[in-house]
Amino acid sequence: MRWEFAPKRLSYFNASVLVLDLEMIRKAGGFEPAIKILQDHREKCMFMDQCALNGMMGDRSTPIDRTWNVQRRMVLREGTSGHLAPEEMQTGQCSQIIHFTETNKPWAVDGYRSFVWMYCKYLQRTPYWRLVSAKAKTTVVKNVRRYVKTAVNLARLTTKVSQ
Asked: Is the Cβ–Cβ distance between 67 and 95 less than 8 Å?
């Protein structure tokens, strides 16, 4: 079964954004197979629920357009994302959902990365902006530093892609 192994390129889906056929899942016994995989083989499930869902679904999954789960490595073209080699990421596509994978989260005290500006822009439109800013001890200086780091990284990315 697929869950016994580390994720293989293009044969394993990322469970951050899913469209589920709940009627089919209910007819097949619900999510019990995924729960059973986690109960019986937790140590083999590197990405926990994601591995369990891959094991449960087997080959009955269909990938959605990659713009609905854009990840850092897809944008920075560093190595592969596990799903996509850098040269396979089509340029000019508009990201629908940005998935902040890896450890450098935009909400971290001094976090910066691609799309941090977009995260902050939309967060400011929510009632959570003040709470997140207070928890991260965000200041004007930290925001300026984050903006500069993001701009430098974006400039580096643009230079890399255009070469």
From this structure: yes
